[in-house]
Every structure is written in structure tokens, then in C-alpha cells.
Specification:
The chain is α/β, with parallel strands linked by helices. It has helices at residues 26-38, 77-83, 86-89, 103-111, 121-129, 177-189, 207-212, 224-234, 259-264, 266-285, 288-298, 303-309, 313-316, 329-344, and strands at 64-71, 92-99, 116-120, 135-144, 153-156, 170-173, 198-201, 218-221, 237-241, 250-258.
Length: 368
């Protein structure tokens, strides 16, 4: 499908008539439909947490079930926390649900299909801009810094060796706000008018085929394994990371939850964040083979197979790019700038300060 990525992201645009019942309001119904597209069978808003009784009182030994919506393609701290038992240590029975990235996870969290979501911060900001202002950020997940770098790369078709050759060509992009904004800025940074190319929406896993068949001349790879697979299969040029266009210190991926859930479960929320931070710390020091095993289990890529195809890929993967995830004043300012850029690129309706939407754990140096 050919689209104009300058058309502002709207959660309503993803509605396709999957869910027809249990509509509590016009806005909530629209988001519930979006969630239903990705998580059929995930449960209704009344069943995502089987118990919240442990939320009262610090140090409670009762276990609380918390459903967390994640996306495939990258190893996330929630997956590490579940695999290594950090959630269990904090009396959390985490149910990890893999959904479509960004907008669908925001919708699932808003509708109550999951308790906590993790996704790109711009998808959350787009929802806030459309009036869904009852989702708070409780933890940053990925901070963009030049030192840490990123495994999300722009890869061109065979024969294209310079970004300048992309003028008038077709760009295949995964349709969520962060990638749309980053792609347009990347083109602009490399001297290509972002309005002077054609855009097609694509699904993750189709990139190499699109390049091979000429359906697109530029696509995004989301991790080292995918980058090498696309480059080798399509014989194309890997132009390197795309997220270098983000403001330094931007927290571009975040965990979020409804204000009502956070207010009802403050200690549970604290425990979830404590487990996530333990997972971040583990990720920074763990052997790459251990992280590859967890990614194979959760993230949708079999690194045992990839290692056989591309020897050394496990070591080449940037497993350690998780930065300190606290929303410091610097990180808040950078993230606000990123939202402003998304407004300029017509992916978010309005710029705003994220500070009123930060749950107490988001700015706390120590939790639990």
C-alpha cells in the first residue's frame, strides 16, 4: 500500500472492525479495536490482572499477575526480567504478550488488555495528542546516545551505493511514528528530500524480498541479525544506523500504564520497575550467548540458526545499548524535543511537556 508518511499518525487509522462488542466509549472502543488486531485472545480489561491484592503494603509476599505488552524484534528488559526470575523475586507473575509495535501496544494498554505496555515514545505521544492522556510513563527503556549506538539500520537495494541515488525511489517503512520520523530525518540528513521519494508500508521480515523484487529501494533492519540477513539476501548496501538523527539522550522507548492502574497498584508498579532495572543491569554485563538465548525465546529470531548462517553475529549484536533509563531533566528535555520534531513531521498532533505524565518511578534513581 502506498501512503504518505507525512499524514499524521492517528490511532483511529488502525481500526479495521475486529471487535464489535464491549464498547464503553467512542475513544476507548477505537483503541480496544486496535488492541484486538494484535492480541486476539489476550483477554478483556477485567482479566488482564488476575490479582491486585499485593499492591497494598511494601514487602508483601503475595504474588500479583501483571500482563505486559511487548513487541518482537528486539530484546527487551521485560523479557530478560521474566527469563532471569527478577519479576518472580519481586512477587510479580509476569505474562508477556507479544503485539504489533507501537500503536497497537498503546491501544492494548489503554483498553486494559494489558496492564503495562512498552513501545516507542512517539506512539504514546501521538495517543496523548489525540486525547488519550490517561497513560503515564513509568520507566524509560532505551536511551539514544552516540556512544551506545543502535542496531536499527537503513539498507538499500543492490546497485544503490549512495543515499543521493534514492531521490524518486521507493522507501519501505514499518508504519509506526518513531520509524516514520526517523526515516524522513535520515533522508533529509543525507541530502534527499523526504517528500521526493515514494513510501510503502511493509511488515517486519519482508525487507529482503522487497529489495530483491524492486518493490522498494530502501528498508529498515531492526537488529544485527536482520541487517545481515537483508544485506546478504538482497546484495544491498547497509548505510548504518538510522536513529542517530534523534536528539542526544532521548528516551525513545518507554514503559507506560494507565493512571488508574498505577494508582490502584503503586507497590506493584514499583516492583515491576525494580525488576526491569535489575534486568537492565544484567544485560550490561551478561555474556552475549546468554542474551542470544533469551532473545531466541522471546524476540522472534533464532540466534542459533543465525550464528550458523552468519558466524559471529551473536557477538556483533549490540546487546548492551540499554542506557540508564531514568527520566533525568536532560532526558526529559531531549524527549520533549523529539516530540516537537514528530509534530514537525506531522506524526504527533501537538508538542507538550512529558513531565505531568511521569509516574513516580520514572524520575526515581532508586526504586524498591
Amino acid at each position: 500500500m502506498t501512503v504518505n508518511p507525512q499524514e499524521r499518525f492517528n490511532p483511529m487509522n488502525h481500526v479495521r472492525s475486529s471487535i464489535r462488542s464491549r464498547r464503553t466509549s467512542g475513544r476507548l472502543a477505537a483503541l480496544a479495536v486496535v488492541a484486538g488486531l494484535a492480541i486476539a485472545g489476550c483477554g478483556s480489561s477485567n482479566s488482564s490482572s488476575s490479582s491486585t491484592s499485593a499492591s497494598s503494603g511494601s514487602g508483601s509476599s503475595k504474588t500479583t499477575t501483571v500482563t505486559i505488552g511487548v513487541y518482537a524484534g528486539n530484546l527487551l528488559s521485560a523479557e530478560v526480567a521474566e527469563a532471569k526470575g527478577y519479576f518472580a523475586n519481586h512477587h510479580i507473575d509476569a505474562k508477556i504478550k507479544t503485539l504489533a509495535a507501537g500503536p497497537a501496544i498503546v491501544a492494548a494498554t489503554q483498553s486494559g488488555s494489558v496492564d503495562i505496555g512498552v513501545g516507542d515514545t512517539l506512539a504514546w505521544a501521538a495517543a496523548v495528542g489525540h486525547g488519550f492522556g490517561d497513560l503515564d510513563l513509568l520507566e524509560g527503556s532505551t536511551m539514544q546516545t552516540k556512544a551506545l549506538g543502535s542496531d536499527e539500520h537503513m539498507i538499500a537495494a543492490k546497485g544503490i551505493t549512495s543515499p543521493s541515488q534514492l531521490a524518486g525511489k521507493t522507501v519501505g517503512y514499518i508504519p509506526y511514528p518513531e520509524m516514520t520520523v526517523a526515516t524522513r530525518l535520515w533522508l533529509q540528513q543525507h541530502g534527499v528530500n523526504p517528500d521526493g521519494v515514494k513510501y510503502v508500508t511493509i511488515s517486519d521480515g519482508t525487507q529482503a524480498s522487497l529489495l530483491q523484487h524492486g518493490s522498494a529501494q530502501l528498508v529498515e533492519g531492526r537488529n544485527a541479525g536482520e541487517n545481515e540477513t537483508i544485506s546478504k539476501q538482497a546484495g544491498g548496501t547497509d548505510f548504518g544506523e538510522v536513529f542517530g538523527v534523534l536528539p542526544e539522550d532521548t528516551i525513545n522507548v518507554s514503559y507506560f500504564a494507565k493512571k488508574s492502574w498505577l494508582s490502584a497498584n503503586p507497590t506493584v508498579a514499583d516492583n515491576v520497575v525494580a525488576a526491569l532495572r535489575e534486568a537492565d543491569n544484567y544485560t550490561r554485563t551478561a555474556p552475549a550467548t546468554d542474551l542470544a538465548a533469551i532473545a531466541t525465546r522471546y524476540a522472534g529470531f533464532n540466534y542459533t540458526t543465525l550464528e550458523k548462517q552468519y558466524p559471529g553475529i551473536i557477538k556483533r549484536t549490540n546487546w548492551y545499548r540499554e542506557a540508564p533509563p531514568v527520566f533525568t531533566p536532560t532526558a526529559i528535555a531531549a524527549t520533549n524535543e523529539w516530540i516537537k520534531e514528530a509534530v514537525a513531521q506531522k506524526q504527533v498532533t501537538k508538542a507538550f511537556d512529558i513531565t505531568p505524565y511521569l509516574w513516580r518511578t520514572a524520575t526515581a534513581a532508586h526504586v524498591g
